[in-house]
């Protein structure tokens, strides 16, 4: 009799384990079913944030490119400031005597308008004048700058004038004048618009 009871008890234990396994499996399925949408939502959120990160990286790259361009513009502006300071450091000389005429010439379909400058420049200083030039400013009737540049004082004739294509060019090599030197000037400066008024002033420095 005792042996039969033991077999029945073992059978009951096996059924209990089977039931427990079923309960565990059902619970796991329930857990997976519960957390799967949450995980999907989290994964979608991670994908969205990764996309935002990629967009931000692209924006950073674009901004870095803009910064590089702005730095290049800053360098160019600093160069312009240097050139303007060089111009300021030049001073008008009473030792340079100019006899100049300037006429604004209307161009045509192939030649733009230009300012024609002719005459003479005579230097009566006692020592050499370095970085000598003519600072030319041309304005429209409304005061808009059409020409603003310094040209070197170099000899030329009206038949073979010195031609300047850019009315705002800087960094041109200027001249050295020697005592009692006289220079015939003939220059053409192409420009936009019509020059209604102009000034031509000699400038130079005491150092080369």
Tags for this entry?
208 residues; Immunoglobulin-like; 4-stranded mixed beta sheet; alpha+beta; 2 domains; 5-stranded antiparallel beta sheet; 1 helix; 9 strands
What does this structure look like?
By secondary structure, this protein is an alpha+beta fold. The chain has 2 domains: 1-89; 92-205, Immunoglobulin-like, CATH 2.60.40. Helices cover 42% and strands 31% of the residues. The chain contains 1 helix and 9 strands. The chain has one helix at 2-89, and strands at residues 91-92, 96-105, 114-123, 129-139, 145-152, 162-164, 175-177, 182-190, 197-205. Strands 1, 4, 5, 7 and 9 form a 5-stranded antiparallel beta sheet that branches. The chain is rod-shaped. It starts with a helix and ends with a strand.
Task: Summarize the structure in short.
By secondary structure, this protein is an alpha+beta fold. It is 42% helix and 31% strand.
Topology:
Blueprint: H1 2-89, E1 91-92, E2 96-105, E3 114-123, E4 129-139, E5 145-152, E6 162-164, E7 175-177, E8 182-190, E9 197-205
Parallel strand pairs: 6-8
Antiparallel strand pairs: 1-9, 2-3, 3-8, 4-5, 4-7, 4-9
Q: Structural class of the helices, strands and pairings?
A: alpha+beta
Q: What fraction of the residues are assigned to beta strands by DSSP?
A: 25-35%
Summed over residues and divided by their number, the pLDDT gives a mean of 83
Number of domains: 2
- The low-confidence runs, each spanning 5 or more residues with pLDDT under 50, are none
**Named CATH topology of the largest domain:** Immunoglobulin-like
Distinct helical segment count: 1
H-E order: HEEEEEEEEE
Class of the largest domain, according to the CATH hierarchy?
Mainly Beta
Number of strands: 9
Helix content: 40-55%
The best one-word shape is rod-shaped
Question: What's the CATH architecture of the largest domain?
Answer: Sandwich
Largest sheet: 5 strands, antiparallel
- Measured distance between first and last alpha carbons: 129 Å
Q: Radius of gyration in whole Å, from Cα?
A: 43 Å
């Amino acid at each position: 009799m005792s042996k039969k009871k033991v077999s029945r008890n073992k059978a009951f234990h096996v059924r209990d384990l089977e039931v427990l396994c079923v309960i565990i499996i059902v619970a796991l399925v329930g857990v997976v079913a519960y957390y799967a949408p949450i995980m999907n939502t989290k994964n979608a959120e991670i994908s969205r944030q990764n996309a935002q990160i990629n967009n931000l990286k692209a924006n950073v790259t674009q901004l870095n490119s803009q910064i590089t361009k702005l730095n290049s513009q800053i360098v160019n502006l600093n160069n312009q400031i240097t050139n303007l300071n060089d111009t300021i450091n030049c001073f008008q000389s009473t030792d340079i005597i100019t006899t100049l005429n300037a006429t604004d010439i209307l161009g045509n379909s192939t030649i733009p308008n230009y300012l024609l400058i002719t005459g003479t420049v005579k230097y009566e200083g006692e020592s050499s004048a370095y970085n000598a030039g003519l600072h030319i400013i041309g304005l429209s009737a409304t005061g808009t700058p059409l020409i603003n540049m310094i040209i070197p004082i170099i000899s030329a004739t009206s038949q073979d004038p010195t031609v300047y294509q850019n009315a705002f060019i800087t960094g041109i090599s200027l001249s050295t004048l020697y005592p009692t030197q006289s220079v015939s000037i003939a220059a053409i400066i192409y420009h936009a618009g019509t020059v209604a008024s102009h000034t031509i002033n000699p400038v130079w420095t005491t150092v080369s």
